[in-house]
């Protein structure tokens, strides 16, 4: 009993309440001091005041000591009731809340949290058994850390927020539960139901409009291939196909020109078009009322989160890219991302040279306006790129200007032709420059002409593209998303066999009766031969017309054959690559070129890829060669497989039957596995 009385006596007030209770004492001291001062002035007044002070002190003492116990009792009752109210409010809080131990065991949860778990899991000791995402591996490590993540539970989506709550001194005050030493903390889990909000966000996103453009690629050719009385019927059938296809997904079609359509559809239905891989591209080819040429379309779609006008701009960029890649495909541009569909067939070459004449006239204007002209192709310049650069130099020469070629490394296959120019006194010593030399000479007034590539990273000197303001691109490869976007003139013909074919046509319009020296004509002719595999691949009417023009200009077939011959080591290396070939899926040949001990293994790899196509049942060949810390892939096909879309999956590109890619490592097994994985994925999805 005495111990309890002593414990009760130890219960003291503190803080502002203690200060409030002590004010009567302070007043008593002040009144006593005043009474002494009054007593010295007037003894009767001091005695009278003393009487009142004594009564005040007596009453204040009684109220203090008696009221203190009542206040303590009321405070204790308030604290108990406050704790009960606080506990009730927390338990009935509309926000799901729970406390976990460091190992993930639940020690407390409110009613909303129990409601989410349901009766089946309401007594689970570990939260991770119900929600595997909320396990101890993601718990916050520091007190100020907050972990947020999305959790899916019984068809509901939650945003979970986890905090580390310190309860230092818990073991000293709590008698029923003891936490492990140095782990006096809980993990507070708060769940926010995001199901409805995410549904509204998704619905809002799906309601966004997608702008699109549809062009008939070969309108003039198709119309010209049917009788005049049937032309309107052919157009009507194509219109019907397009309207039915877009109308099926609740879209709107507006015909703007005879061969152009503007479309608008919701994003949710746009996904349906993606899933069927834009079957309209193949469906429209079935329109046949006597036309000898099938109708092909190009589709460009643009999606922007910012504005509908931006979606329309994206659609124009996408349709331009589809046309530049040869047509017969759909291109989707969403922000900075670009996706391609279709384009499995080679676009038919057009016999008209109107475009070549227009581009030649524009190029002539740029050349005559500039005094310093630089020409460059792609890295590891091949015969086609070299011949095209030489052809551009000849165009500058006949216009009274001088052009220089950027060439950093001369490959073994290019050296015989290159040496002919170095040894010929008719050509200046500084005709060929390295990147370092060019950067010291170039300025913003220079003219840069890029041939045989349209990708900045593939050029011999990418820095030059940022210095010069006037850039011209002449290429025959299908465009990719990372093309040179600041060119003032871009002439890209994906159906051309080679860059030399394009330059040969341009030369004929630069000046009348242009004369090309024998060596230069031979170089350009060799470029056409290399890229067409001796006029076997991608050759059209204009290819042979360009070859005939070069032959008339003096191209020497015997000289070309001598310059393009392989040495014994290269021939043996090619045979070694072919020997290592394996057949994958009974139609793909995959070969490796390791430790070849030749100067230009990539050239040998390309030649081996061409020869592997001579094996029956092989539809495409892939040769991987190691060179300068990288692995280069040469992909070739005849007609059934589009190797360009395969190489694009690996970050490369090129033509439908001649493409390539690079790996930034020398792990041959890993590179081969990557090629096989791409082939497996595309076969499974029906892309090849």
What report would you give on this structure?
This protein is an alpha/beta fold and 688 residues long. The chain is 45% helix and 19% strand. It has 25 helices and 23 strands. The strands form four sheets. The chain has a six-stranded mixed beta sheet. A six-stranded parallel beta sheet has the order 14-13-12-15-16-17. It is elongated and about 145 Å long.
Provide a concise account of the structure shown.
Strands 7-8-6-9-10-11 form a 6-stranded mixed sheet. A 6-stranded parallel sheet has the order 14-13-12-15-16-17.
Q: Main traits of this protein?
A:
alpha/beta; 25 helices; 45% helix; elongated
What's the structural blueprint in terms of helices and strands?
Layout lengths: L1 H8 L6 H6 L1 H19 L1 H49 L5 E4 L5 E4 L1 H11 L24 E8 L2 E11 L3 H4 L11 E9 L1 H12 L2 E8 L2 H6 L3 H20 L4 E6 L2 E7 H9 L4 H4 L13 E7 L4 H17 L4 E6 L2 E6 L11 H16 L3 E4 L6 H16 L4 E4 L8 H9 L8 E2 L1 H7 L5 E5 L12 H4 L2 E6 L13 E4 L6 H12 L7 H14 L9 H12 L4 H7 L4 H12 L2 E3 L3 E6 L7 H12 L7 E8 L2 E8 L5 H6 L4 E2 L3 E6 L4 H18 L3
Parallel strand pairs: 9-10, 12-13, 12-15, 13-14, 15-16, 16-17, 19-20
Antiparallel strand pairs: 1-2, 1-5, 3-4, 4-5, 6-8, 6-9, 7-8, 10-11, 18-19, 20-21, 21-23, 22-23
Helix pairs in contact: 3-4, 13-18, 14-18, 14-19, 18-19, 18-20, 19-20, 19-21, 22-23
